[in-house]
Amino acid sequence: MTINNFEQLIKKVSKFERRRKVAVVVAEDTHTLEAVFKANEEGIIDPILIGNKKKISEILYKKDHSINDGIVIDVKDERAAAYKSVELVNMGEADFIMKGKIQTADLLKAVVDKEKGIRTDKLMSHFAILEVPTYHKLLVITDGGMVMYPDLEEKRKIIENAVDVMLSLGYKKPKIGVLAAVENVNPKMPETVDGAELKKMNQNGEIKNCIIEGPISYDLSINKESAEVKGFNSPVAGDVDILLASNITVGNILAKSLIYSGNSKMAGFIVGAKAPIVLTSRGSSAEEKYLSLVLSAAAV
Prior knowledge:
The chain is 41% helix and 18% strand. It is an alpha/beta fold. A six-stranded mixed β-sheet has the order 8-7-9-6-5-10. It has a five-stranded parallel β-sheet with strand order 3-2-1-4-11, with helices on both faces. α7 (190-203) links the parallel β7 (175-179) and β8 (211-216). α1 (6-14) crosses α11 (286-299) and α2 (30-41) packs across α11. The two termini are 18 Å apart.
């Protein structure tokens, strides 16, 4: 199965028998609430709003939304709100978490708390999926928001996280491109060495349920004609599902370039904890937050 655009993903999630429950941390944020209530009205999620009840109510009133006392937990302290969200996940009362008007560090501190948090033995990484107007299907970029300078083993874990998400979305064997500036191994370019090693690990069965090509440049990953001109033969060329960035800077700039210069839409969340964590920027649009809710609901 391949998902070509967000409309297909929304239709897929809207057919689920059970709405997913999301704990929204410090929910008194206009764009966040717009996204939450759109997803709620479409039957995708049921929100649990954690934060200053008075401020939440004021925002909802301005947006002509009514508030149900049963879905609001009045917590005025931001860190306490973060700990409440992970408590709800641990108790099975929330399927995933969404960041509202709270600093990322404060939310993640609760997530990774050794006694009360929801961290697992997996590496936590950022999964971004984009609808790019010039590409024929949704495109994943990882990791542009969590692991700064991953080594070979961390890259393997990032790939495994991304593959797990894709399998949950219905993909059978996603195609992965390990990005580099060139397609040949150059000892002076560590990302090319890692790309070749990850491809070998995939071929040896150490990394399963996917097809890895590496090293491979961006143009060859998404443009089959460029690959043909260069004589680069690979099932990944021109049909990649997941792009593995060499570091957080590459992943972050690539995603933002596609959004702000390429008119792309994006959804994303943190994977590797007990539950997905929607960790969009506080400056993200209501649409991006909504699509991230849809993605997380699909991946649970």
